[in-house]
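queue> pop job 88
queue> type: inverse folding (structure -> sequence)
queue> payload:
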């Protein structure tokens, strides 16, 4: 089996990745990225010696637009899309998905994400937690990993796990940051998902943001520590009665300090910001605290 990392160059290198997995009778694709980077994805797949129609199946970890926004291109070619059961209806009819994204991105929607079209249900497979499917000679196990989103799977192939956003953001070996955008962040579910990943004992993890890492348990420990730390920090601000507009500048500054203290260079900081807009994490964490912890 060969796993190819495809850098989609989402406004900057090493912000968003897809993975072309080769084995057996044809490749499969993990993640599609957004519509705006589809030409880059097409060029990379062709550069590896394949036509898009050679792909046997597409597995998306969840339906956020930086992970599944271009899935409709593949479905239009008759290629099946594998997705969490809660996400499946929203790629068949993306009306609510797009309305939710538009509330966050406003007039930046088209610039960031391009077009999103409905997908015929006949090309969507709602893969369940623990289910194993064989596609193109490759056995893929879906592992439900909630906490970042209510429609998130990690995918296990042999000793490698593709962890989407539940595995955090880490670029060029830098600090591991938890992406916590609205509306589905739930800290306790996230911690349970990290326990599920540890129990599977993958030897390698592949992050959608960004790349391959072998120090799996160290990585997960750092992610868990920072997830709890950031959540508690935001929770205290909410308890003090601060609004998002007051919290965001402090939080963004804290994220920048973490990266600067680790010696992350400016170009990689830029990639972190495109992969995980720091201000957006505040919106997800304040919603979590108000809804689940403080019940405001």
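queue> result:
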């Amino acid at each position: 089996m060969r796993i190819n990392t495809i850098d989609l160059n989402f406004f900057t290198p090493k912000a968003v990745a897809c993975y072309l997995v080769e084995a057996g009778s044809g490749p499969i694709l993990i993640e599609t990225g957004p519509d705006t980077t589809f030409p880059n994805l097409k060029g990379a797949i062709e550069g590896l010696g394949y036509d898009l129609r050679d792909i046997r199946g597409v597995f998306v970890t969840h339906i956020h637009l930086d992970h599944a926004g271009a899935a409709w291109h593949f479905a239009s070619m008759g290629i099946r899309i594998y997705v969490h059961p809660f996400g499946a209806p929203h790629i068949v009819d993306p009306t609510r998905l797009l309305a939710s994204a538009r509330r966050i991105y406003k007039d930046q929607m088209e610039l960031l994400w391009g077009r999103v079209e409905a997908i015929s249900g006949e090309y969507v497979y709602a893969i369940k937690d623990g289910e194993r499917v064989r596609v193109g000679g490759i056995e893929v196990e879906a592992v439900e990993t909630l906490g970042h989103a209510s429609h998130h799977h990690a995918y296990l192939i042999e000793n490698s796990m593709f962890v989407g956003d539940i595995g955090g953001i880490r670029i060029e070996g830098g600090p591991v940051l938890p992406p916590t955008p609205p509306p589905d962040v739930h800290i306790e579910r996230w911690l349970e998902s990290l326990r599920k990943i540890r129990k599977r004992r993958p030897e390698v993890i592949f992050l959608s943001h960004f790349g391959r890492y072998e120090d799996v348990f160290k990585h997960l420990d750092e992610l868990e520590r920072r997830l709890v730390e950031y959540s508690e920090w935001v929770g205290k601000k909410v308890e003090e009665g601060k609004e998002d507009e007051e919290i965001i500048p402090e939080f963004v500054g804290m994220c920048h300090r973490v990266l600067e203290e680790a010696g992350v260079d400016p170009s990689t900081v830029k990639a972190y910001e495109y992969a995980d807009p720091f201000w957006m994490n505040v919106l997800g964490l304040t919603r979590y605290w108000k809804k689940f912890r403080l019940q405001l």
